Amino acid sequence: MAKTTRSDSLAAQGQAAVKVPSKSPLLAKLSRDKYLLLLCVPGLLYFFIFKYVPMWGVLLAFKNYQPFIGFFDSEWVGFANFQQFFQDPIFFKLVRNTLLLGLYDLVFFFPAPILLSLLLNEVRISLYKRFIQTIIYVPHFISMVILASISYLLLTTEGGAVNEMVFSLTGYRIDFLTSENWFRPLIITQNLWKEVGWGTIIFLAALAGVDQEQYEAAIVDGANRFRQVWHITLPAIRGTIIVLLILRMGNFLDRGFEQVLLMSNALNRPVAEVFDTYVYTLGITQGAFSYSTAVGLFKAIIGIILVFTSNYLAKRSGHSGIF
Predict the structure, then answer these.
(1) CATH 3.40.50.720: does it fit domain 88-147+173-316?
(2) Beta bridge partners of 63
(3) Predicted TM-score of the model (pTM)
(4) Domain boundaries defined on the chain
(5) Is 69 helix (H, G, I), strand (E, B) or coil?
(6) Crossing angle of the two packed helices 180-208 and 238-250, in degrees rounded to 10
(7) 293 phi and psi, to 5 degrees?
(8) Which PANTHER family match (predicted)?
(9) Three-class SS of residue 286?
(10) 144 with 262: CB under 8 angstroms?
(11) In a 3-state reduction of DSSP, which class is residue 76?
(12) What is the 3-state secondary structure (H, E, C) of 94-149?
């Protein structure tokens, strides 16, 4: 009888313990990861202060902003600035120049880090591989001003090393810096030299996670190196390639303001004028703040549309997008 009473009391205590309300799953996770969340605070503050707070400035695109009147007292004009931009003949020139540079970047620059990563992945001598990686990473840390100066010293018709070599072989010099035909190849070449090595970091990290047993099985089946890369390596990093492609589509219209501004001049400006330089010319040098904000907002909206479209197409094709 005593045993039964004791068991009943223990069961009653267990029921009472079950009825005690516990922490919600969200609070429990916050309490568990409080130190990790604390590390996120500087990043969140950065995005809030420098990315989200300034977003109220897009209202300038719908106003006829006058600095002497002030932001709130300036006249509200709605979509007048956008209508003026769309009716301006320079609109189609900006779209053409920006889209062509973006297309060349997508065709020539985006695959370059992938190909270079595949080549580096085939290097078996560890010391030699690290040496090559160090060499190709260095240009990323060179300022665009320095890069433009190096390009000028190499390509100028007045004693440039490349032009002197061309002159010794052909008897004439090429106007690389002032020719409209050479502007886009020059921009893409600079991007390749400066950023292709840095772009291999993510792909090399993805390649490091490929299961080596798959290569061993492929060797047993008689597959050569090209077949191994095509059927094992590329499918293994396909998700990384798609995510980076979607992210790049968001910057499709960002053509590097500093680079284009430094490499453009009066002779090649018909093909060098892009959205970024146009916004700078209008907003900073001419003081058309509302009009330049409208141009910048239009470019940002197109970038958002490209991201959502590419993400939708990636999911429709059976791949995982970024959201």
Answers:
(1) no
(2) 76
(3) 0.80
(4) 22-78, 88-147+173-316
(5) coil
(6) 140
(7) -65, -40
(8) POLYGALACTURONAN_RHAMNOGALACTURONAN TRANSPORT SYSTEM PERMEASE PROTEIN YTEP, PROTEIN LPLB
(9) coil
(10) yes
(11) strand
(12) HHHHHHHHHHHHHHHHCHHHHHHHHHHHCCCCHHHHHHHHHHHHHHHHCCHHHHHH
Give CA–CA dist 252/219, Å, rounded.
Answer: 40
Is residue 97 a contact partner of residue 271, using CB atoms and an 8 Å limit?
A: yes
Q: How far is CA 159 from CA 70, 156, 163, 167, 302, in A?
A: 52, 6, 7, 10, 43
User: What is the chain's alpha carbon radius of gyration, rounded to the nearest angstrom?
Assistant: 29
Residue entry with tokens 């998700």: 239
Q: Which residue has the tokens 């502007």?
A: 183
pLDDT tens, the chain, 323 aa long: 444 555 555 455 555 444 445 557 888 888 888 888 899 899 999 989 988 888 888 888 999 888 888 888 889 998 999 999 999 989 999 999 999 999 999 999 999 999 999 999 888 888 898 999 999 999 999 999 999 999 999 999 888 899 899 999 888 889 999 999 999 999 999 999 999 999 999 999 888 888 888 888 888 888 888 888 888 888 888 888 998 888 888 888 888 788 999 999 889 999 999 999 999 988 888 888 899 999 989 998 998 899 899 888 888 877 777 77
Query: In whole angstroms, what is the distance from residue 272 CA to residue 265 CA?
Result: 8
Residue 153 tokens, joined: 């010293």
